[in-house]
Amino acid sequence: MIEIVGLTKRHGTKLAIGDVAFTVAPGRVTGFLGPNGAGKSSTLRILLGLDRADAGTALIGGRPYRKLRDPLRTVGSLLEGSGAHRSRTARAHLTWVARSNGIPKSRVGQVLAEVGLADVAGKRVGTFSLGMGQRLGLAAALLGEPEVLVLDEPINGLDPDGIRWIRRLLKEYAKGGRTVLLSSHLMSEMAETADDLVVISAGRVVTTGPLGEVTAGHASLEEAFFALTDPAGRLS
Ligand SMILES: Nc1ncnc2c1ncn2[C@@H]1O[C@H](COP(=O)(O)OP(=O)(O)OP(=O)(O)O)[C@@H](O)[C@H]1O
Questions:
Q1: What does the buried/exposed string (b/e) look like for 135-168 if buried means 16 or more CB atoms within 10 Å of the residue's CB?
Q2: pLDDT tens-digit profile of 165-180?
Q3: Is there a smaller number of Cβ atoms within 10 Å at the N or the C end of the chain?
Q4: Whose CA is nearest to atom 6 of ligand 1?
């Protein structure tokens, strides 16, 4: 369970997010949807303890990230690439992440297989394509078998096969009673993947709810999105 209440963050005089509030329920895939610059990354960075809010709280399983005892065993995350050093092999990177988080080394082989990188485990990360880097980042997120997954734009760089694969993986993960939050600006992708939606625009949450409720009365999620974020139709 993720609970975000009254989250506000300014960069200088610019409001990145204002009074953002939503919950993410276990057993479902929740899509965090908004255009570029809407405030998705700002929200997720605070949730993951990488940035401080000016106001409000962001809790994972009832605690702020910085108070989690074994963070990677509670929440797996993917933000902007794998974060692996280019000269390391995929296996060495994951082994290092596992060791520094008290995760058994046996998990490394398991997650490499799970994300489809077993054959290139001995290759240097610097030789990886964007999609392979995304898979490696996801492998690190899965290492600690966390109850919660938080993924920022996880399908960036993935080909259609990769997109299908990650969609299935996230649905399976949630089906087991775990919590999955993923951000994207791609509406068609969200319509295929998410059970619930949190729609954000210009730093404010404009609606939350099951996908079917958010799109009710609209031809598509895209139509719903534009109606919600621009009720006067000025953008069309
Ligand atoms: N470090 C920063 N300094 C100044 N402004 C920032 C900073 N980080 C974010 N912003 C601004 O805050 C707003 C929200 O940005 P954020 O990156 O959270 O949006 P986003 O929804 O993740 O967008 P994208 O899909 O482009 O990543 C934007 O206007 C952005 O320019």
A1: bbbbbbbbbbebbbbbbbbbbbbbeeebbebbbe
A2: 899 999 999 998 999 9
A3: C
A4: 11
Spatial neighbors of 67 by CB under 8 A, at least 6 apart, are: none
What atom in ligand 1 is closest to the CA of residue 39? 18
Say if residue 136 is in the same domain as residue 166: no
1 within a domain of the structure (yes/no): yes
> Does 130 share its domain with 180?
no
CA 142 to each of CA 72, 76, 94, 231: distance values in angstroms, whole numbers, following the listed order: 8, 6, 10, 40
Sheet holding 179-184, edge to edge: 75-78, 148-152, 179-184, 28-33, 196-201, 204-210
pTM (2 decimals)? 0.91
**Ligand 1 centroid distance, CA of 65 (Å):** 21
Substitution candidate for ligand 1 out of 14, 43, 181, 185 with most atoms within 8 A of CB = 14
Whether the per-residue pLDDT at 23 is higher than 80: the answer is: yes
- Best CA proximity match to 226, nearest among 35, 36, 38, 41: 35
Give me the interface pTM, i.e. the ipTM: 0.91
Q: Considering only 21-35, 72-86, 131-145, which range has the smallest mean pLDDT? A: 72-86
13 CB near ligand 1 (under 6 Å): no
Confirm if 115 and 122 have CB atoms less than 8 A apart.
no
User: Can you give the residue range of the structural domain that contains 50?
Assistant: 1-61+147-236
Regarding whether 156 and 129 lie in a shared domain, the answer is: no
